[in-house]
Specification:
By secondary structure, this protein is of the alpha+beta class. Among the domains are: about 70 residues, no CATH class; about 80 residues, no CATH class. It has seven helices and seven strands. Strands 1-4-5-6 form a four-stranded antiparallel sheet, with no helix packed on it. A three-stranded mixed sheet has the order 2-3-7, with no helix packed on it. The longest helix has about 30 residues. The protein is elongated, with a radius of gyration of 34 Å. It starts with a helix and ends in a 14-residue tail after the last helix. The model has no long low-confidence stretch (mean pLDDT about 85).
């Protein structure tokens, strides 16, 4: 007669899956609203989500070592859970809008690299700002403002403005450089307009014939 144990061994054991390598962990679910700074608050800690979800309501799955964020049942973010002092942030760079990425990427090394790509005068200005500002943070903020000038001005225009300010003062500032950039832009536009006007007059001028003066054209 076949025992229950032998029946199990012969007919059922082969179909069982192996036990998981790690013990099952309990999870807790919460809801949270994504703040304007694209972070959610969980137990007084802050975790980033893609900025597209700002002001959206999301679901948060908490385990002992993981924070997972879901929107419409789709996971949009995952962080190692923070412990210790309240107010800590876990921020993933890919969650940031582009302007924030540009700002957090600012370092003295990055500032020098950018300045070198513009020209020697720009590099001198950047060195001066980093050497004389009260804090590195303030220096990098000023350089970041100058860097954004590339949205409106060419590298040549920025380098020319920096060269001009160095010849004018030993204490160059980004504000003065911006003024020079605007002034140069206006002057260049006026010169271009004058050149086009002169060319137009030369191209469309005419010579009056002898009939105009009472003579006869032959």
């Amino acid at each position: 007669m076949t025992t229950n144990v032998s029946a199990f061994e012969e007919e059922e054991k082969f179909a069982l899956s192996p036990l998981p390598s790690k013990p099952y962990k309990m999870s807790e679910w919460k809801t949270a609203k994504v703040r304007p700074d694209y972070h959610i608050s969980v137990d007084s800690m802050f975790y980033s989500v893609p900025y597209e979800y700002i002001n959206r309501q999301v679901e948060v799955k908490l385990s002992d070592d993981l924070v997972e964020v879901y929107f419409n049942h789709m996971r949009v973010a995952s962080h190692k859970r923070l412990y210790g002092k309240f107010g800590q942030l876990s921020t993933i760079r890919d969650h940031m809008p582009e302007n924030h990425k540009l700002y957090v990427d600012q370092t003295p090394e990055a500032a020098f690299e950018w300045a070198e790509s513009i020209g020697a005068s720009t590099l001198n200005v950047v060195k001066y700002i980093l050497d004389t500002s009260q804090t590195e943070k303030l220096a990098l903020q000023s350089i970041f403002t100058l860097k954004k000038s590339e949205r409106r001005y060419t590298k040549y225009e920025i380098e020319r403005a920096c060269k001009m300010i160095i010849s004018m003062t030993k204490r160059p500032t980004v504000k003065i450089i911006q003024t020079i950039l605007k002034s140069n832009k206006k002057s260049d536009a006026e010169q271009e307009m004058k050149r086009k006007t002169e060319n137009s007059e030369n191209n469309f001028g005419f010579t009056r014939g002898s009939n105009y003066y009472g003579g006869t054209d032959k």
